[in-house]
């Protein structure tokens, strides 16, 4: 639990630095690597802890977060061109997360209240759709490895930012009870979650129009 919490907090700080600094600069790259390392620890421990509860939505969320940050890193720091094993492994993991999430969603639909572990079926289908879209993107990239720089940067951006979105939503909305009662209001706690989506949209627009 300690590693999960510390990893999440470090990831949030590193993300703010990476988003606020010059893209491609030394500080951006350094904070980005810290972000990835912290997110891997946070996501892996969170998914493992959730599996024992069980809270299957958080198993899926942790797996998807892990998949997105690793493949987001591989987009800008690819291994040698003649060895794409790690890309195929990542693709398989992403496909597995998608299948797992869709399976949980179908299982939730078969239950009387349409929820599994207290979470409604649409949430499982949303995570499954994101994982499937990312896996399809990986397959396309593997079949056509030479992609335009803008497309590669956009791929890196949306994966890192969506992983950050999952983390902020899990913290500020999923763990609202850890915040002081004075700010424990949905209207306040949702602000950083929406902010991540707005920042992602801003940078994706800049990449496409630059």
Walkthrough of the structure:
The protein has one domain (2-209). Helix 3 (56-76) runs antiparallel to helix 4 (85-110) and helix 4 packs antiparallel against helix 5 (121-143). The termini are far apart. The protein has helices at 2-20, 26-52, 56-76, 85-110, 121-143, 149-173, 186-209; strands spanning 115-116, 119-120. A hairpin with a 2-residue loop joins strand 1 and strand 2 (119-120). A two-stranded antiparallel ribbon has the order 1-2. The protein has 210 residues and is an all-alpha fold.
Topology:
Elements: H1 2-20, H2 26-52, H3 56-76, H4 85-110, E1 115-116, E2 119-120, H5 121-143, H6 149-173, H7 186-209
Antiparallel strand pairs: 1-2
Helix pairs in contact: 1-2, 2-3, 3-4, 3-5, 3-6, 4-5, 6-7
Taking Cα atoms only, what radius of gyration do you get, to the nearest Å? 17 Å
What's the mean pLDDT score? Answer: 86
- The number of strands is 2
Biggest sheet strand order reads: 1-2
**What is the beta-strand fraction?**
under 5%
Report the end-to-end length measured between terminal Cα atoms.
42 Å
Order of SSEs: HHHHEEHHH
Helix content: over 70%
Oligomer: single chain
